[in-house]
Structure formats: structure tokens, C-alpha cells
Queue: 3 jobs
Job 1
Amino acid sequence: MPYNYDDQNIFAKILRGEIPNDTVLETEHTLAFNDIQPQAPVHVLVIPKGPYVCHDHFALNASDAEIADFTRAVGKICQMNSIQPGEGGEGYRTIANAGSDGVQEVPHFHMHILGGRPLGRMLSK
Ligand code: 5GP
């Protein structure tokens, strides 16, 4: 089934400025803000400004500039939070849920960056 981007999703509304967010970084193609229900001391959501539903949609359709900007933003947020394992930080986890098996709630591609505490194993079962 082709992707059908719903421009009424909550992150589309954040991008249009219709609802507030706690922005931590904004670049030409990317916005990052704190999750409203943080699961860890660091819980940032990184989203492209373009209308992409999930990671594969973004990875296969976004421009090189959008992908580079997004990827650099993820790195920058790790840097800003001092969680880089190669730079004295304790590490982190990135998660991008997709579709029903991935239990994606908001149908605008977003990457979770979680850190600031031991996160346990990746999957419980
Ligand atoms: P998903 O399950 O789709 O990967 O994660 C969606 C995330 O978006 C959840 O962690 C949820 O707490 C967060 N979220 C949902 N609505 C809002 C909102 O209005 N503002 C912010 N900052 N985060 C939200």
C-alpha cells in the first residue's frame, strides 16, 4: 500500500506552529524537541520537516540534503547531551518505530534519542 501522509498528525501541527513544543534544535530540514512523556532523562524526538511517514519512507524518498541534515542533527543532539560513548558519555539508544508491528503512534517519521540512564536490553520479549 502506498504511503498516505496525514497532515493532521500531531507532529505536522507542531511543524506548522499550531501546537507548542520544547525545541532543542532546529535546522533547515529538521526539528528536534523533547518528548512530552519522557522515558529517560534524555528523550528527544528528531523529525524531518518534510512529509514522511516513517524511516524507510524518508530514507528512500528524501533528498540527500534532508538526510544529511537529519543525520547531523541526531549527532548534534547526542553531543549537546554529552551522551556520546566515544566522548566520555554513557551512551544512548535511537529508536524509530514504524507501522503497526513497530507500534508507531504518530505517523510522521521521528527518531527517539534516549539516554541519561541504563536502558536495559533492546526488547523485553
Ligand atoms: P511513537 O510511538 O510514534 O514512536 O512515539 C510517539 C512519541 O511522541 C511518544 O513518545 C509520545 O510521548 C510523543 N508525543 C505524542 N504527542 C506529543 C506532543 O504533542 N508533543 C511531544 N513533544 N511529544 C508527543
Job 2
Amino acid sequence: MEERIYLDHAAAMPVHPGVIRFGRQFLEEFAGNPSTIYQEGLQAQAAVAGAREKVAALVGAKDPPSIIFTSGATESNNIAIRGTALRNAGKGKRVVVSAIEHISVLNPAKDLQKGGFTLTQVPVDHYGVLDLDALGAAVTPRTVVTSVHYANNEIGTIEPIREAAEIVHDRGGYLHVDATDAAGRIPIDVERDGIDLLTLSSNQLGGPAGTGALYIRPGVRVQPVLVGGGQERGLRPGTENVVGIACMGEAARLAGKEMPEEMRRLSAIRDRLITGITGIEDTYLTGHPRERLPHHASFRFPRIEGESIQLAMNMLGIAVATGSACTSMTLEASHVLLAIGLAHDEAHGSMVATLGRGNTLDQVPRVVNAARETVKRLRAITPL
Ligand code: PMP
């Protein structure tokens, strides 16, 4: 049996071996409840504080308490959008998002409309790059929160965050950035980039799933989405997931340390994949050819269907994505691919390969051959 090749790190990442070692030791040494003041509780407090420092360091946050821990990117996005919009509604009831945000940003933003907020979705070009002129027209002094992701999970395009921040700050608003797919992969600096709120996911850094974080620039007013105790400055009540948080911190530290080398290594594999797969007849890259995440390669194959590609590649021992794992259950055409100008039928035939630690250059020929074989076979039987 040939070894499987896993190319869907955007959906789930294997936990980094260094995090596994750290987590095992952590689990063996009992840590109490961080809200208590005896020794066991203080140990837990110290573990959470240490993780806060490591996560803050990864994204250039000067003040570690500006990081709060959550259950994941979806929760961080909900606090950022809902919590910021509701807390600042006195200033205005306007929210702006890019049209290709993840549904965990789009849906809370749409939900605010029920409470009388106006939502504007800003278009992107055919590479998925935010239209900054349209952003400038959409954001007004009454816009309380604007959300633009650092990079897109379906097409890999990196957004002009610094330019977006300037526009948003010019009009006195807050910029939220969902960095789920970009953090730990490319350098992020909330100071340099002008970010007011930043979403992070533990698993996308190489930590265990079920933990996330939200950076909130000191002074930004946010209200909690869940109410309960005073944990995480009252913004995320509930007893902390101490082991998840500690492991996320270690994952952030390792991701930061290994980033320069992984960027070089993975972008070389990505470029080989792109050259090989776009060499297949009538096959196109989606997303930006240069301004894209180093671990991200995404394609579309006219006249075939994403789920069929995924199943066929799986049979050949290769795990790839089609669209986003989060929306694939609905089988709807991807809103991202529609927003970059593809027709409905074109938006159905996508394949996304996201790389990670386990991938190597010598896997590329097998992946390219499998894609070629799959496309040929599916096109031969397509009714389209
Ligand atoms: N934002 C982005 C950009 C994502 O890609 C994802 C998931 N892949 C999420 C948010 C949601 O993450 P989770 O399902 O872990 O909450």
C-alpha cells in the first residue's frame, strides 16, 4: 500500500510533535482551576499566562492581556463581530466585511442585520484581492467594525491588511482580521499591520483543536457574547481549557520559530504543485499567483465536480479539499469562488491542497499524476 498523502491542513492539522511532548507532560502534572489561589490554581494561572505571552509574541501584541482564549476561530469571530458591534452601537449601526470572509464572520454579521445594523459586503477582484476603493466607499464614520481576513482559506490570497487598516482608521472604526489560515504561516504584526482585533485558531498553529484566541487592542470596547463568570476579563466566561490553552501557546512558539524555514520549504512544494497541476489540460489556478499563502495551492477544473475529485483522489491515497470543509456539507457553490467572478458551474469543480510539516517535494509527482488521471477519467464520463 502506498503511503497516504495528506493535503488538507486547512481543515485539520496534525498536532506538532513538540506540542504533543509538551502536552503529555502537562497532562501528567495536575493543574488546578486558574481562578483559585492555592498552589495548584497558581500553577494553572501561570500556564495560561505563559501561553498568553507566547501567542502575543507570535502576532507582535505588546501587551499579553490583550489576548483572550476562546474555543476556536468561530467563537473568536463571533466575539469580534457581534461583541464589538453591539458594544459600540451608540456610535453607529454599520458593519462592513469583505465578500469572501469565512461563514463564521459572514453569519454573525448577517445576524446583526436583524437588530437593525446595515451590512455592506465589499467585493474582491478575480484574484480575491479586496477592492480598496470599494472599501473606502463602504466604511463611514458610523461603521463600528470592519472585518477583512488576513488570507482566504479556499484560494490562499493574502489581503492588503495595512491599506485596509488605514482606510478603516481614517474613518474612526475598528478593523477585525481573521488570521485563522495565515497565523503561524506568514509574519503577522498587529502593530505594523494596524489590526484592532485578530482571530487565531490553535489547530491552525499545530496545536490541538478546540482552542482559539482573540487579540483585542487595549482600549477597543467589546462586550461578551456568552455571559457567566469573570474569566478572560469577562469576555469569555467559563473555566479555562487550561491544557488546550497551554498547548496553543506552545504551538504558537514553535510555529513562530519554524516559520522562516517552513515558508521556504512549503512554498517550493506549492510552486511545484502549481506548475504540475496547471499543466493538465483546461486547468486553472484560483487565487493570486504570487500574493498567496506559502502552503496553499488551489485549482479549478471546468466540467467536473469537486466532490468527485475529492473521492477519486482519496481512492488514490491523497486527501485534498474542495471549497471549504465548513460549507461542503451543503454542496452549495462556494461564495468565495462566485465572488471572484466564476459562474455557478465553474465554482463547483475546485480542488484545494494545503501543505504542512509532513509534506515533501518528492510527493509532488504522485499528486500531479493522480490529479491528471482523475481529471481525465471524470471528464470522460461527465454529463456536463
Ligand atoms: N475562519 C477561517 C478563515 C477559517 O478558515 C476557518 C476554518 N477553516 C474558521 C474561521 C473557523 O474555524 P473553526 O471551525 O475552527 O472555528
Job 3
Amino acid sequence: MIKKLLITGANGQIGSELTLAFRKIYGHENVVATDLNPVLRAEIKDNGPTDQLDVLDRKKLESLIDQYQIDAIVHLAAILSAVGEKNSQMAWNVNMNGTINVLEVAREKGIKRIFIPSSIAVFGPTTPRDCTPQDTILQPSTMYGVTKVAGELLGDYYVQKFGMDIRGLRYPGIISHETLPGGGTTDYAVAIFYDAVKHGKYECFLKEDTKLPMMYMPDCLKATTDLFQADFSKLRHHAGFNVGAFSITPQALAESIQKVMPNFEITYKPDFRQAIADSWPNCIDDSAAREEWGWKPQYDLDAMTEEMLRVISEKHRQGLI
Ligand code: NAD
Ligand code: AKB
């Protein structure tokens, strides 16, 4: 039974919503939200404990675990694919040394349960791109992907070697309206909604037919909390479950937006992120997640689009964006 949970990278796109989801399950006082950024979002700061933490600072991590008597960690802090290609040393440092710090401190302090997200970025040009299997070739062509493969292997190693309970999901691109994404290749699928509402048009940095797996935030929260609470003894995989929802091209997303905003226009100007996207799968076989812990997504493309446009339009009306 988990009593006190610490989240790293809690101010990011996923952390800012996952923190609130975990606080609903485990109690507001029992989820400690931390981030490198000392200024956490008001929604997080105002409804539970928070602290500043650089995951590279092992001593501070140790002292927070002691101070709050932490018995589970959700390790979200990371550098994503596009920022990681601009600064590969930083991506290696934060993603690898941050992850090994979390695993080692947890091992030393007897913390068993750790959640570390992985990504579709573990796959690369040699992986089958259609309906990418759970157990397949992991030869990514980005530094971000290299660190995510190593993170999965480390997670599985700590399960086997030290009997720890490490879990992880290979998230697809996550689409949400609360916090902007932090520098990935799938970020276009969020930016398009803001530009649609504010300007009625969007210039996309990927080609119109670039198909990638995506997921709406409520499904991301559901997948994460469901796996986190699943019966560990029933899991055959651990650190890198495939999870799918829907796969889309920029053109398909634009057409979905046009169903609500017929005058919306999209143009295409691919940049360095095109090569990253071209190395990732079109769609994902998530049958292992469905069989081992009952994964089932709830949102399809049009349901997600309608909700994204409604919420972002309302924020725009209120002058918040
Ligand atoms: P994000 O970039 O939005 O947020 C990352 C957070 O980590 C930021 O708040 C940042 O301040 C913090 N951070 C950066 N360096 C840090 C450090 N040294 N110490 C502590 N905190 C630090 O990322 P996200 O989208 O919320 O991603 C969370 C996790 O999910 C990551 O592991 C990412 O690889 C994974 N993931 C995300 C997506 C997605 O589409 N959002 C898809 C696949 C996997
Ligand atoms: C990125 O584009 O880097 C992330 C991811 C799929 O890991 N959204």
C-alpha cells in the first residue's frame, strides 16, 4: 500500500496533470510534487506539498525522501526529442544520470515502486513501422530514444536483480490543453489547436502525411494510474509497455479541426523534426498492455478535437492565452 509518493518533473506537460490525478487517488498531502523549476503551477502548489528538485542532485533527492518518508516515485523529469537533438549532452545527462539517481536512491532506501515513462522514441528506422510489436528491435536514431531504451533496460534490470517494482509506458505523443509540451517532435499536435483558435491557421513543421501514434491527456492519465495500480504479479513486461489510442497525420488532424472550424487553414514547412518523426512508428500494437493490465483508450480523434477546441476557445475568450 503506497503512502507517500514523490513526483519529479511535476511542472511539465504530463506532470502538471498527473500530479493532480495522483493526489485524487492517494490524498493531496501524500503526493510531493517536485521540479527543477522552482515556480510550480498554482494548481499544484496550492493543493499539496511541493519542493524544488534537480534530479541530478542526489543529496537533495535523498533528503526529500527522508523528509517526506516517500515510498514510491514517479520519475517524469526528462529532456524530450527535439530539445535533445539540439543538445544531446544535456539529454544524456538529465535522462540517464537523473534516472540512475532515482533508481539507486530508491534501492538504497528500500523504495520498491517506481514509475518511469518511456516513449515511442525507443523505436527507430529498423523497427517495423506498422502496428509496431511490443517486443521488437530498439535501435533509435535520436539521443532521446537512446536514453529511453537505456531507461527501459535499467528498469527491467532493477526488477530482476533487486526485486524492485519498476513500471513504464511507451507514451505516444500526448495532446493536452493545460500545459504546453516541453520540446518534442509531436508538439505540433498541440500547437495546431492554439493557432487554430488564435489565428485560424497553422504552419506545421512535419509533412502532411507523417503518421504518428497520439493520445489525449485523459487517456494518458488513465493509462498511467491504471498501470501504477495494477497487480505486479500479473505483469510479464515491466518498464516499457506499448500503449496506443489513435494514429494521425497532420492532414487528418487539420480535417478534424475543419469539422468544427471550416475556415481553418494548414500549411507545411518541415524542419529537422521531420527526420525524427520518420524514424518512429505509424501505429502501435498494445495487446500486451490490454492483456496484462486491461488497457483500453476512451478518446478517438474527433472526440479529442472537439474537447481541445472547446477548452482552448474558452481560455481565449477569457484572455488567458
Ligand atoms: P516536459 O518537457 O513537459 O516536462 C519535463 C519537466 O521536467 C519540466 O517541468 C522540466 O522543468 C523538468 N526538468 C527538466 N530537467 C530537470 C531536472 N534536471 N531535474 C528536475 N526536473 C527537470 O515533459 P513531459 O511531456 O511532461 O514528459 C514527462 C515524461 O513523459 C518524460 O519522461 C517524457 O520522456 C515522457 N514522454 C512524454 C511524451 C509527451 O508527448 N509529452 C511522450 C512520450 C514520453
Ligand atoms: C517527443 O515528441 O519527444 C515526445 C515523445 C513522443 O516522446 N512527445
